Amino acid sequence: MPYVLPKSQTLCFKVVYYGPGRSGKTTNMERLPALVGKLGGYRVKLHLYSVPGQSFYNNTRKALLQNVDGIVFVADSDPGREEANLTALQNLFENLRRLGHDPETLPIVFQWNKRDLPNATPIKTLEAMLNPDRRPSIATAAHLSKGVMETRNLLLRGMLKQVREHQEAAPLAKMA
Ligand SMILES: Nc1nc2c(ncn2[C@@H]2O[C@H](COP(=O)(O)OP(=O)(O)OP(=O)(O)O)[C@@H](O)[C@H]2O)c(=O)[nH]1
Ligand SMILES: [Mg+2]
Prior knowledge:
- This protein is of the alpha/beta class.
- It is about 35% helix and about 25% strand.
- It has one domain (about 5-175): Rossmann fold (3-Layer(aba) Sandwich), CATH 3.40.50.
- It has helices at about 25-30, 60-65, 80-100, 125-130, 150-170, and strands spanning about 5, 10-20, 35-40, 40-50, 70-75, 110-115, 135-140.
């Protein structure tokens, strides 16, 4: 759940960009302002993190997932990276489970990045391989800023839904 800064009426979400090495996670973050705007009297702020994709940084990846509110899984549409996408996704779910997160209720958005590549893996293939649960997904070209904001907004929608559901049990004011 996000934390609340009552004085400034700010709601802070932790967002992690996850995915294989060189899929475009950092590129996404470089193109995003972290302050989203006002929502029901609250300002919404995002703390954005990008994990290092290379396999040997797993301790860092796991540490970054602590207290996460939402995840963007940045998949690489380069056909040579199909295996790497799958490995990174399995690694994400394994780390989430180890940390005690419930992957069922945690908002996750799938980003099919590098759609500008002429030989990009078909979206249908990516969906079948990586997103059998049909979570929200979006096609992007992050280095051109295409779809970067939309990805964030899609995730935000999921995270706010979580807050609303949680609020029914425990009102926001009590979360501070
Ligand atoms: N063609 C293409 N290149 C992209 C796109 N998005 C990012 N890149 C390029 O891919 C390379 C890797 O991008 P990064 O954002 O550093 O990737 P990363 O996922 O943060 O990589 P690691 O931190 O090593 O895991 C850079 O050269 C980017 O400019 C895209 O949509 N299309
Ligand atoms: Mg990076």
